[in-house]
Amino acid sequence: MGDVRNKTFVVTRFDPDRDEAPRTQRYQVPVQPDWKVLDALNYIKDEIDGTLSHRWSCRMAVCGSCGMSVNGEPRLTCKDALDQYGDTVEIGPLANFPVIRDLVIEMEGFLEKLKSVKPWIIRAKEKAVEEGPLNQSPEQLEEFRKFSMCINCMLCYAACPVVANEPDFLGPAAIALGHRYNLDSRDEGAAERNEIFRGEGTVFSCSYANECTEVCPKHVEPAAAVNQAKLNVLIDWAKGLVLPRGGAQ
Amino acid sequence: MSTARPAHPQVMQPSRPGPTRTAPPMRPARMPLRGPYLTHSLFGATGLIYLLLGLLALEIVWALGSGEEAWNRVRENFQHPLYIGFHTLAFASILFVGVRFFRLFPPAQPPRIGPAKPPPPGVLMAMLYAAWIGVAGVLALILAGRIF
């Protein structure tokens, strides 16, 4: 164990009942060498100012609750070591999201986008239970495994320059999730999802800034998913032109 | 953050407002010209260079159709420092966009195209660079009058 070091935390505060707009508040925190950003926030909440609101749950980069802006970058605060920052650390709510209170963002819009890509297995005809499970080989799993690791932390939305300007943009995580099901060997709903992906504000709104992939704490590579989905939509569209009953599978 | 600017007010808003008032969304603090966003903004800005290059190409075609005198005047203009500066900038833009595109191309490949798997990222990059150098070389030989 090394020495405890004092750091100043500049935290964005917003009380919808009292504040016109978000403001910042400074806190001095004695930081242990092995602390993550979330540890400092919990210290502020427990020891200095109980009115501070922030989301967190698992503390092991699985639940995706504690995404925040740290020194202007979207970070999963339970995974983000404090020793990489200087004496002053700025913590704010995730960019590109409305703020409910302090560091808590409104995620309902995100959940609506997520649901809109039909993130479940669609079958043309449901298999009866007696017929057994839908088997999948390790090779088939590998085709989409990376895209299924998303924990819905929304860092990709906070980093995306398109999200900031286009309210209707489905966004990286939702498209990656839809693409993940399109690649799933058990799924038969690619045509339905590609119909969604062909619409306004979906895959072709992405300008491939790649920021979503850069900030993803689970290495999902949403930018790759979005751009693979573009190709699939194009192939599907081209098949529809040349095949009599459309190209959709 | 203090340096961030407001995002579009409707960004990530739910279809029905929640029970409490919310603060409007802010853009990423470093957008558009700091940190990783600079590359993306520069990439977008190169579109202006390509627009100017397109206009220049039209001028060249126009001069070709207007006789030898007009063509020679265009060639003389190419000696002007402004033209040389612009071409240098255009060359840098093409290199920048090419390298960026080649770096982002391999991850965008689907796991399969029909029954075939795409080549590994390294091979794909090598193929892209080889094709780029090959096409540039052939064009250079044509312009130098060595072939055709």
What does this structure look like?
The complex is a heterodimer of chains A (249) and B (148). Chain A contains nine helices and seven strands, in the order ββαβββββαααααααα. Chain A is α+β, with helices and mostly antiparallel strands. A five-stranded mixed beta sheet of chain A has the order 2-1-5-3-4. A two-stranded antiparallel sheet of chain A has the order 6-7. Chain B is extended. Chain B has 148 residues and is an all-alpha fold. The longest helix of chain B has 28 residues. At the A-B interface, β6, α2, α4, α5 and α8 of A face α1 of B.
Topology:
The complex is a heterodimer of chains A (249) and B (148).
Chain A: E1 5-13, E2 23-31, H1 37-48, E3 67-70, E4 73-76, E5 88-92, E6 99-101, E7 104-105, H2 108-116, H3 138-142, H4 155-159, H5 161-165, H6 172-183, H7 190-197, H8 211-215, H9 222-242
Parallel strand pairs in A: 1-5
Antiparallel strand pairs in A: 1-2, 3-4, 3-5, 6-7
Helix pairs in contact in A: 2-6, 6-9, 7-9
Chain B: H1 37-64, H2 68-77, H3 81-104, H4 121-143
